[in-house]
Amino acid sequence: MKTILFISELGAGLGHVSPLLAIAKALRDSADRDPKFIFAVNDPLMLRPLHLPAGDLVLPLPELKQNEPLSSHSKSYAEILAHHGFTRAEVMTPLLALWDDLLSLIKPDLIIADHSPTAILAARGRIPVLQTGSGYTMPPADLPIFPALRSAMGAPTMQPQMLDALNAVLKLRKQPLLPSLPALLATEGRALFSHPILDPYAGMRPDPYLGTYNQGIAPTTPVTSPSVFLYAGARPDYLGTLVQALMATGLPIRAYLGPRETAATSFLRMSGAEVFKSPPALAEVFAISSVIVSHGGAGLTLAAMQAGRAQVILPIHAEAEFNASRIVSNGLGLAVEDPVAETITDAVKNVAEVRRITETTQMIAAQAPKHLVVDPMASITKQVKALAGF
Fold first, then answer.
1. What is the CA radius of gyration of the chain?
2. 3-211+373-388 and 228-368, same CATH topology
3. CATH tag, 228-368
4. Half-sphere exposure (CA, 13 Å, Cβ side) for 337?
5. Cβ atoms of 219 and 283 closer than 8 Å
6. Domain 3-211+373-388, CATH class in plain words
7. 312 contacts: CB under 8 Å, gap ≥ 6
8. pTM higher than 0.90 for the full model?
9. Which residue ranges make up each domain of the chain?
10. pLDDT for 150-200, tens place per residue?
């Protein structure tokens, strides 16, 4: 029996776990014999309630605990690495040793990793890795350095020192050295869930675009009457403000705010909104919703764009800020930087009422297939079977 280890190391919420679950389902459906699936994620308590098939294991993973949130000046991937200890050999050496312990215990035939640079480094030259991710979390591996993604900013200057520190660790571990810092991400397989519009490295990479990992997403005709789908919960500090703002629009609301019951979910239900207890099938929700309100996670933003739905984004991290900027610049919706109820209410109303936004979302959705692989899961399954030998 082949063992596949699915890893989600960095990033919060379902956005980094959902693609792994989608790949696992596709592999299970296509396998002649059931492989053994093990998930190592940074929030196992979030994954376990999702009713995984019997036999699948969920484990915590080794991680560097950070007391301060990531502050990204240039939005470069190099800053993400620096924040997670990649500048310090004295941090990486014991952290990689912990990964060695986990990998020795599991003995995977293949690792499928989403936004997991430390796990990829630990497996380098030892265990094949198929890397998944969005355009932001999966930069091209053949760049000389990680560029700045914020306009008018230079690339972080500490990258040569980071490369030297990592190569010193790899040399002691008897692993292949890195010719460049981005080469860290040069895995045996790659599966990019993105679209050129939402890829900060568009025009710089050889990877094909797979589009969304969500099943059944296709261009959807406009609904006859406006309504809102809210996907949020990552920022509980202003969730109440967000719910209050949406209620003030007077539009019907459907929402998923995470697996835990909160005051916001109770208030929405009492107000007549439909609140999902588990993540809904997005294709079904998009078919009856005209405006998608979210924090700008890559998975939902991409799926809504492919479905032809207008968006209002309240970005909460660097990737979401980039996604929001591309949605706005392409005429697909609005972004709200300041979480003030009146501002959110006005943004949702405007997006719901402006015909030009609806027409643009429909046009982009209709054009999307020409940029994307026809059957993304078949493409991934083919890679996995070649790498894992089943």
1. 21
2. yes
3. 3.40.50.2000
4. 5
5. no
6. alpha beta
7. 291, 292, 293, 294, 333, 334, 335, 336, 344, 347, 348, 351
8. yes
9. 3-211+373-388, 228-368
10. 877 888 899 999 999 999 999 999 999 999 999 999 999 999 999 999 999
